[in-house]
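Example for reference:
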Amino acid sequence: MVLEQSLRFAVPLADRFYVMEHGRIVAQFSAAELGTKMPMLNEFLGV
């Protein structure tokens, strides 16, 4: 398990992603789903 705040660092390493907010998992998805989850990730990450 790797806990990382930098998505760019984590993407090549991970096969599964979890989004945490205030200590709770609010989303989880596989690396294969990453492309479809980018709008949601941009909202969470404020990008």
Observations:
- DSSP finds two helices and two strands in the chain.
- The first strand starts at residue 16 and ends at 21.
- The chain has a mean pLDDT of 89.
